[in-house]
Design a protein that fits this description.
The structure is a single chain. The chain is an alpha+beta fold. Helices cover 46% and strands 21% of the residues. The protein has helices spanning 4-8, 14-33, 47-56, 61-85, 96-112, 157-167, 170-173, and strands at residues 115-125, 130-140, 143-150, 181-187, 193-197. It has a 5-stranded mixed β-sheet, sandwiched between helices. Helix 2 packs across helix 3 and helix 4 (61-85) packs across helix 5 (96-112). The longest helix is centred in the middle third of the chain and has 25 residues, at 61-85.
Length: 198
């Protein structure tokens, strides 16, 4: 069946288009200024070839998207450490480019002290024909909350829709569990975090 995130790809995401364009332009400028869009004879790479060069050099949106995926995997690894061992992860165990995000996650853990009910659980709806994987279901200050970790710079509407999609499977998957709130947890490269109730 299709995934919640796959279904949400049908939404118009103008911010994603702007982000992608910005990544490509920034990558091309970095390469141009460092001489990497210039041939050995001093001539410039033709404009129509610049996109290919930026992609091959991993300076564009594809590389940033892939790096975001790596950050997400590291965050979920940190979450497993917390949920399985009850320990806040050691930030020093992670690559320097990811440490800020892990620091933000650890700060959220220390502030909200989630008590995991379960993690990385596949959920789905036979009635509506879709599935997905939730990050965590936890008790936070006596309430049952579904936090969803994100490394985006700001919240986007589709993040809330993703959580709503997961929550709508609960009557079929976990009819005895009543979730009080969905929660987007944004962690930043600078070691900060923000939470946004859904």
């Amino acid at each position: 069946v299709p995934s919640v995130t796959g279904i949400l790809k049908v939404l118009d995401k103008p911010a994603l288009l702007a982000w992608s364009e910005r990544c490509g332009v920034e990558g091309a400028l970095r390469m141009e200024r460092s001489g990497r869009l210039t041939y050995m004879d001093g001539s410039s790479v033709p404009v129509e070839d610049a996109v290919r060069e930026v992609r091959q050099a991993k300076e564009g949106a594809d590389a940033k998207r892939d790096a975001g995926g790596e950050r997400g995997l590291a965050l979920h690894e940190a979450q497993e450490t917390y949920c399985e061992l009850g320990d806040v992860p050691n930030v020093g165990d992670y690559d320097p480019e990811i440490r800020g995000y892990i620091t933000g996650y650890c700060r959220w853990l220390l502030r909200d002290e989630p008590e995991p009910i379960f993690t990385e659980r596949v959920v789905g709806s036979v009635e509506h024909g879709y599935a997905g994987r939730i990050d965590m279901l936890a008790k936070i200050k006596g309430r049952i909350v579904m936090p969803d970790l994100k490394t985006a710079a700001k919240p986007y509407p589709e993040q809330h829709l993703q959580i709503a999609g997961y929550l709508s499977t609960f009557p079929e998957c976990f009819p005895d569990i009543e979730v009080d709130e969905g929660l987007v947890v944004l962690v930043g490269a600078d070691g900060t975090f923000e939470t946004y109730p859904c």
